[in-house]
Design a protein that fits this description.
mainly alpha
Length: 324
């Protein structure tokens, strides 16, 4: 039986929240926080950038692939998910060169395990696995062991470095926690962080230290420079996953404020915005996402309507789980 607080609205919030944060951060990806501040002050509207206003990047395209594979297979299937990534691949979405090479190798017939090692002998430590993980959290909420297994497995398809894998698990755990938290009551920030620390593997000391930093930053009013210095705003998972968790926890009462905060930090804005959006969307639900932002999200073959259908499919599959 599903917990009473867990609803289709919250599942939709997580998936659409990731899409929204991605689209909001897309126009200023790679900008410094000073450049964003000087040009816009803050990014409060969905704007055009290298893509049309409301367009998603590789973050959301790969998230769509994870949702599609989970729905088609009913569970995690590594080969199917890797091939789904290849099927959806659109270079115009802004894939990193390494991930693009991995997908090209897989599409040409190379097993994903070999493809990853050819491109990243030591494993990629980027945030590309964490940015797309929201559907895993939605399907495996309330089942932490299965969540870790699926999140780690999906990460290794392209990002096999332990930091990248642990980052994906941590982001999935944060979204799952937010899905089961009731936004009608004040959020227990310390309890949220304590649960996240407990979800980490024994060897994830660097993430534990980052979460300690998050807790300390929540006790003060840090400057943007301090947040970036302590947590990061880059493409490495260790430099962005906990930044997204902080952006949510520093603004638990508002999806809008949380995502604006995330994007205002500069750096890898689309991914940090997307990860923050997934957590905050899971907490507040679809109804918490500003309608003016949702209205501007791209439509089309795999646009907003399709993403909402995927969320509904995940909700149905989740509700069919007998142990819940």
């Amino acid at each position: 039986m599903l917990p009473g607080v867990l609803t289709l609205d919250k599942i939709s919030g997580a998936i659409l929240g990731a899409f929204t944060g991605d689209a909001l951060g897309m126009p200023v990806e790679g900008w410094s926080f000073q450049e964003i501040s000087e040009r816009y002050g803050e990014i409060t509207e969905v704007l055009p950038g290298r893509l049309k206003a409301g367009s998603y990047t590789d973050d959301t395209e790969m998230m769509i692939g994870i949702a599609e594979s989970l729905l088609e297979c009913g569970t995690f299937n590594d080969r199917h998910m890797a091939l789904t990534f290849c099927r959806n691949y659109n270079p115009g979405r802004g894939y990193g060169p390494g991930t693009a090479r991995v997908l090209h190798l897989i599409e040409s017939g190379t097993p994903w395990e070999q493809a990853v090692k050819k491109v990243f002998p030591d494993g990629s430590y980027g945030n590309g696995a964490a940015m797309r993980i929201a559907p895993v959290a939605c399907l495996y909420v309330g089942r932490p062991d299965e969540l870790r297994k699926c999140a780690a497995g999906s990460a290794r398809l392209t990002h096999a470095h332990p930091q990248a894998v642990e980052g994906a698990v941590l982001q999935a755990s944060a979204v799952a926690l937010a899905l089961t938290a009731d936004s009608q009551y004040p959020l227990d920030q310390k309890g949220f962080l304590r649960s996240l620390k407990n979800s980490l593997s024994p060897g994830a000391g660097e993430y534990r230290e980052k979460l300690d930093c998050v807790e300390k930053l929540l006790e003060i009013e840090p400057t943007v420079e301090k947040i970036i210095r302590e947590l990061g705003n880059g493409v490495k998972a260790i430099q962005s996953v906990c930044t997204s968790i902080y952006s949510f926890l520093a603004n638990p009462g508002s999806f809008e404020k949380a995502v604006i905060k995330a994007v205002s930090l500069g750096g890898d804005t689309d991914t940090i915005g997307s990860m923050t959006g997934a957590i905050s969307g899971a907490y507040h639900g679809r109804q918490g996402i500003p309608e003016r932002w949702l209205e501007k999200l791209e439509e089309g073959q795999k646009g907003r309507g399709y993403v909402e259908e995927l969320a509904a499919g995940l909700w149905f599959l989740l509700s069919e789980q007998p142990e819940l």
